[in-house]
Write a structure and sequence with these properties.
The complex is a heterodimer of chains A (63) and B (132). Chain A has 63 residues and is mainly alpha-helical. Helices cover 60% and strands 6% of the residues of chain A. The longest helix of chain A is centred in the last third of the chain and has 11 residues. Chain B has 132 residues and is mainly α. Chain B has five helices and no strands. The chains are: A mainly alpha (63), B mainly alpha (132).
Chain lengths: 63, 132
């Protein structure tokens, strides 16, 4: 699944570690999501949507 | 506490629990071999020589606690790593079993764990490299 997490994170000037802190997950998890090696669970996807104040479908797409 | 700091703290707790368990295991192992071998044959001797298995379960408990502390991606990764490690170990032990049929020397079951542990280290190192 494609996502724009890296783009949104970099726009805010956060490191992967900063985002991981805010989501209460490991930096490896953020890295895997950004590199599209891992699709997050629904609760984590909602946490990302809340953090970036965007609907989930704006963060993830299957195209 | 930040997550990276939390991650380090979690790893520290895990390593303390794991190496604590392994240290107890080593002490019990040495004591069991020292006293057990000299004892006369019987149930007590078997129990003494078997006793290192008990602290080994402390290490299993430390690993189980660590799995409980992992987040969703790390838990999935660990599961994938273990699946690969089990497959490699099964492949190796079966292959060597066939080689034994062909006349190779019989190996002790104790050789299984070093194969598994070594594979686990390699798979873990590759995973770390990938997650950088």
């Amino acid at each position: 699944m494609k996502n724009v997490i890296r783009e949104l994170r970099e726009k805010r000037g956060w490191s992967q570690g900063d985002l991981a802190d805010r989501l209460e997950v490991s930096r490896q998890t953020v890295n895997a999501i950004e590199n599209e090696r891992y699709d997050p669970s629904l609760p984590l996807a909602f946490a990302l949507a809340r953090l970036f104040e965007k609907p989930i479908e704006k963060l993830f797409s299957d195209k | 506490m930040g997550c990276e700091m939390l991650e380090r703290e979690v790893k520290k707790v895990y390593l303390r629990e794991l190496f604590g368990a392994l240290a107890i295991y080593a002490v019990v192992l040495v004591a069991a071999l020292h006293f057990g071998r000299a004892m006369p044959e019987g149930t007590v001797r078997t129990a003494v020589l078997l006793s290192p298995s008990l602290p080994f379960f402390l290490a299993v408990w430390a690993v189980a606690r660590q799995v409980g502390r992992m987040d969703e991606y790390l838990r999935l990764s660990a599961l994938q790593d273990i699946a690969i490690v089990c497959a490699v170990t099964a492949g190796w032990t079966f292959t060597y079993g066939f080689l034994e049929n062909a006349g190779f020397p019989r190996l002790s079951m104790f050789t299984v764990w070093p194969v598994m542990g070594g594979t686990w280290l390699v798979v873990g190192a590759l995973r770390c490299f990938r997650n950088r």
